[in-house]
Design brief:
Length: 397
């Protein structure tokens, strides 16, 4: 079966990325059901949120809790919408499906997912894989690419995963309990305490985080600059909140010390050190009471848990993926801190794909077109004969 006969479903806890492997780009949408105060009777599924007239105070119903799929009713509702005629319009009985799952997924969740794909959707074949496995498998095999250290900064967690000749080293994986959810919640708390009550505005604050935040390269310098008067303050920005009539998405005003802060009808949030103190949690989780190491320390510890002969290869092939890795300055900060912590004689190189969010989907689409793809699938006939046991034997998750 060709790439046109394969559906790739990167099933993230926050965003779902789906599309046929032959498509150029995936459909990206919230992996949730949402309810709005303005339209109480109607739930919005996935990309239907674009039809909501007023998304203030949006309430999310998620299938995932703490990184793992627990609410199958919600997930099936989202999947039905994605596969149905309003979105992709697919007949899954004729398709192979590549679906992602989190690292260290529970056996019960794996079994339920496999059963739903074969029994509910009647798929022709199934490949379950970690998103990180797909990203690494898609890279061409080269002498300088024998090992890879993947940093997956997602919604619920950040995972640091060493791969040696394409196989993940399970005992060396490190997990940090900080991801996009913690960052958005922290931003809501800071702004609610300092300026305006926004604890119910997850949708808007998530957009503000994406539009305004960056990773500091020098924390002390930036804190001093953020405290300067407006005319001398390079950090200060104003964010225009959406009113969902004339403005559907907020935006950050360009820096202009001479301009008046607010035009008529604008509601502003003033941002100074919030812009870099929120992403700083990825490097210092203890700032919000999470007693864990930050990403650079986790990278060094993960490498140290691997055989010494692999260390040079891992340090020179650190790859950043996931939505929380998109902050400006993130790659440079990871490089600078790992370079300071790693042995001096070992070269360090940190790379990032053009779009860290859709990286796993594109890797899955690429894999679907390769000759080795069929050997990694569990077919419907195999499922009917062996049940879930064949999945345990076939999938390396």
């Amino acid at each position: 079966m060709t790439a046109s006969g394969t559906l790739v479903l990167d099933n993230g806890a926050s965003l779902l990325k789906a599309g046929l492997a032959s498509h150029k780009d995936p459909l990206v949408m919230p992996n949730a059901i949402m309810k709005a105060k303005s339209e109480r009777r109607r739930p919005f599924i996935g990309n239907q949120i674009d039809e909501c007239r007023d998304a203030s105070g949006l309430f999310y119903i998620l299938g995932f809790q703490k990184g793992y799929l627990v609410n199958w009713d919600v997930q099936k509702t989202v999947w039905d919408h994605v596969f149905g005629k309003d979105c992709l319009g697919l007949n899954l009985s004729r398709l192979n499906v590549v679906v992602t799952e989190p690292f260290f997924n529970f056996r019960s969740v794996q079994e339920a997912m496999s059963e739903m794909m074969f029994e509910e959707y009647d798929v022709a074949g199934l490949l379950r894989a970690n998103a990180g496995d797909l990203c690494v498998a898609a890279e061409p095999a080269r002498p300088d690419n024998l090992c890879c250290l993947l940093v997956d900064a997602g919604y619920s967690f950040t995972h640091v995963v060493p791969y040696i000749q394409g196989k993940k080293r399970r005992e060396a994986i490190r997990r940090i309990d900080v991801g996009g959810k913690v960052l958005t919640n922290h931003l809501k708390e800071i702004i609610s305490y300092r300026q305006l009550h926004v604890m119910d505005e997850t949708y808007v604050m998530n957009q503000l985080k994406e539009d305004c935040c960056f990773v500091s390269q020098d924390w002390r310098r930036d804190m001093k600059q953020a405290a300067l008067p407006p005319a001398d303050n390079p950090i200060l920005r104003h964010y225009v909140l959406p009113d969902f009539t004339s403005l559907r998405r907020g935006y950050m005003k360009p820096r202009d010390p001479a301009a008046a802060p607010a035009a008529e009808g604008e509601q502003l949030i003033r941002l100074t050190n919030e812009r870099f103190s929120v992403p700083e949690l990825l490097f210092h989780p203890s700032d919000v009471g999470i007693q864990q190491m930050g990403i650079p320390e986790a990278i060094v510890e993960a490498v140290s848990a691997c055989p010494p002969e692999t260390w040079p290869h891992l340090y020179r092939n650190i790859r950043l993926v996931g939505g929380s890795s998109r902050f400006p300055g993130f790659r440079d900060r990871v490089y600078a801190e790992v370079r300071a912590l790693a042995p001096d004689e070992l070269p360090v190189k940190v790379t990032q794909p053009e779009d860290p969010v859709t990286c796993a989907w594109r890797a899955g689409a690429k894999l679907a077109g390769e000759s080795r793809f069929s050997s990694r699938l569990v077919t419907r006939a195999q499922w009917e004969e062996h049940g879930f046991n064949i999945c345990l034997d076939t999938f390396d998750v």
